[in-house]
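Our consortium's second objective concerns turning raw sequence data into structural hypotheses that experimental partners can test. To show how far this objective has progressed, the report includes one record in full. It was chosen at random from the queue rather than selected for favorable results. The single chain below, 121 residues long, was entered without modification.
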Amino acid sequence: QVQLVESGGGLVQAGGSLRLSCVASGRTFSSYAMGWFRQAPGKEREFVTTISSGGSTYYADSVKGRFTISRDNAKNTVYLQMNSLKLEDTAVYYCAAGRTATVIIERYSYWGQGTQVTVSS
């Protein structure tokens, strides 16, 4: 199975930036679409952004213009650059892998353990 390991979460003031990383196992990383989701306490996990195996990207309206997803296939890594962070961005952030870039959470087959992002005032 594919294993995904996230890092980069932490505490940041509103308006600040963080970069999350997710490293995948296996030699077929480049064939997977990758996504980022987030989950606040007591709430449903929600779509943030996705990137296809070819590099096409899509963002939730709530993060468009502030977050950037990218991938480095040579390093088996996907990144989430988060700028201009807001209090409402506070959540556990998860990376996921699937066959197709999609907003539908059920389409992703593999998940990371999550990393906490806390935005303070």
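The partners drew two points from this record. The chain is about 0% helix and 50% strand. The mean pLDDT is 96. Both points have been shared with the crystallography group to help prioritize constructs.
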